[in-house]
Amino acid sequence: MTYRSLLRVFSSDLAIDLGTANTLVYVAGKGIVLNEPSIVAVNRHSGEVIGCGTEAKEMLGRTPSSVVAIRPLRDGVIADFKMAERMLNYFIQKAHKRKSWVHPRIVIGVPSETTEVEKRAVLDSTYRAKASEVHLVEQAMVAALGAGLPIAEPSGNMVVDIGGGTTDIAVISLSGIVYSRSLRIAGNEMDDAIMEYIKRRYNLLIGERTAENVKIAIGSAHPLAQGIKMEVKGRDLVHGLPKAITVTDVEIREAVADAVAAIVSAVRTALEHTPPELSADISERGIILTGGGSLLRNLDERIRHETGMPVLMADEPLASVVLGTGKMLEDFKLLRKMALN
Question: Model confidence over 16-65: pLDDT tens digits?
């Protein structure tokens, strides 16, 4: 038995949704084994990794000056090569119960408009994290597969995957992409907009965790049947003291309005570029929403209102990409057809 085939015996192949906000890992035959924030906490002086994932997120905004919490991905692509490698290594080992000798084959989804340089960064980081083979696939395609769409049929399927860093929109038919667009506006952009709105309107500084909690609790893309409010705590920029304010769903809807409008506009553009026959299929089957950003209240209603198309939520929107990537992991014939590298 060769060294390579011996490694295969002791490896367990992985599908990874390397997201700007969260990383999910799927192990062949086991399903999703890990879902943690894409964050690394590092000692500023020694460079030592203090924590990764959930442990590091707990430190966001609460670290001493010697510790910094880093997000290695920005807008769906690797922004910090070294930290991405360390984070991937940590997640791969955790998925394999800390077995450092494991060298798995890995399939990773990337945004559709990722450049060659950005793809190379993902490949290099994953290989350096001890992968034996790495295959890249388009996020929108695997999101459609994970959402259960019949992508191999000669009919139109439209998926809108709204993650933390990117919104990926694709029209798919016969296992191929007819139209795709990757927009670097998604959940994180909404969080930033909420932080900026509260800072500008109330002179109150809040952290990204608080902004995300506000978005989840009272954020919406279309007017709600009944208004809701939330108390928000932060630091008063005038006096420098802790302060609490109450914000409404109307205010937060105003804060995220630009990001939501950009996503809806991109969906309309995709429909305008879709061939008539496939448009008829989409009007019958509907637009499928996946990703954490799609959980924003009434976003489906807003898209339905502005496009006139039926809009449906995937059964597991947060896991669609990794579930689809996992299906490719278990069907190498399909993977060879879809792989970008």
Answer: 999 999 999 999 888 999 999 999 999 888 888 888 999 888 877 777 78
- Global pTM reads 0.88
How is residue 98 written in tokens? Answer: 């800390």
Task: Provide the CATH number for the domain formed by 3-141+321-338 in this structure.
Answer: 3.30.420.40
What is the third-level CATH fold of 152-185+259-315? Nucleotidyltransferase; domain 5 (3.30.420)
Strand partners, 220: 297
What is the secondary structure of 186-235 as a DSSP string? SHHHHHHHHHHHHHHHH-EE--HHHHHHHHHHH-BSS--SS--EEEEEEE
Query: Which residue has tokens 């000056």?
Result: 65
> For residue 9, what is the enclosing H or E element?
helix 3-10
Question: DSSP string covering 44-92, please?
Answer: TTT--EEEETHHHHTTTTT--TTEEEE-SEETTEES-HHHHHHHHHHHH
Residue 231: φ, ψ to 5°: -85, 135
